[in-house]
Design a protein that fits this description.
alpha/beta; 221 residues
Length: 221
């Protein structure tokens, strides 16, 4: 579906949404604590494939704005608003997912990687199940031989949407904790069993990191 066939109000809504995120983000008390190996590699210019749960991505839209990171966004209709908002915030987007247009999205992400961009994926999106990592991340990391970095966010207080993942919007003036975990290199040429093993390992890693960040933020269950 071409952009011309989307509702006219999507453009203004994206601009308004981006403005709200920036105003809200400036009130947050951000506490970022990152893995030492990740920090050293980032300072050295290494490019990563970031992954994080869909419900916890909003703080990262603020903290990583205007860094030119390429983000994989669903081809579902609601993905168009996310695409436009992300682009207003300074991200590059690729359209596709593990459930619709995945092949196209992966090809776009590979192209962005070859152009030297960081990549970012929500591996439980776009429709869940929530916090269940799908194998697209493993495939892309194995193909690119680019290290993956889990990111976790949590906040002292937040509004949770009535969506499949309970998407979280930290309240104004909330303490927002963020952690980038240790980089992991996914082996090449994995068979089905190998993909499953790595998939489960990456899921445990981001789940454990999220639990620790939630404790640090004092986030309620």
């Amino acid at each position: 579906m071409s952009r011309e066939r989307y509702p006219w109000w999507l453009g203004p809504a994206a601009i308004g949404g981006a403005a709200i995120v920036q105003v809200l983000g400036r009130t947050w008390r951000i506490d970022q604590q990152d893995d030492a190996e990740y920090l050293a590699a980032a300072r050295g210019g290494e490019r990563f494939l970031y992954y994080f749960w869909h419900s916890r991505l909003l703080p990262l839209v603020f903290t990583h704005r205007r860094e030119g990171i390429a983000v994989l966004v669903s081809q579902h209709r609601d993905g168009e608003l996310i695409t436009r908002l992300s682009e207003v915030m300074g991200f590059t987007t690729a359209r596709g997912s593990s459930t619709r247009g995945g092949g196209t999205g992966i090809r776009e992400m590979i192209r962005h990687a070859r152009n030297g961009r960081h990549l970012a994926i929500t591996p439980d999106g776009p429709r869940g199940p929530a916090e269940e990592l799908k194998d697209g991340l493993v495939y892309l990391a194995s193909r690119l031989q680019r290290r993956v970095v889990p990111i976790a966010t949590a906040s002292s207080s937040a509004w949770a949407a009535r969506s499949w993942d309970r998407f979280r919007v930290p309240h104004a003036f909330a303490r927002v904790c963020i952690s980038h975990g240790a980089p992991v290199l996914v082996p090449q040429n994995l068979d089905a069993h190998g993909v499953s093993v790595v998939q489960q390992s990456l899921q445990r890693t981001v789940a454990d990191l999220t639990r620790r960040v939630r404790v640090r933020a004092g986030e309620a269950a």
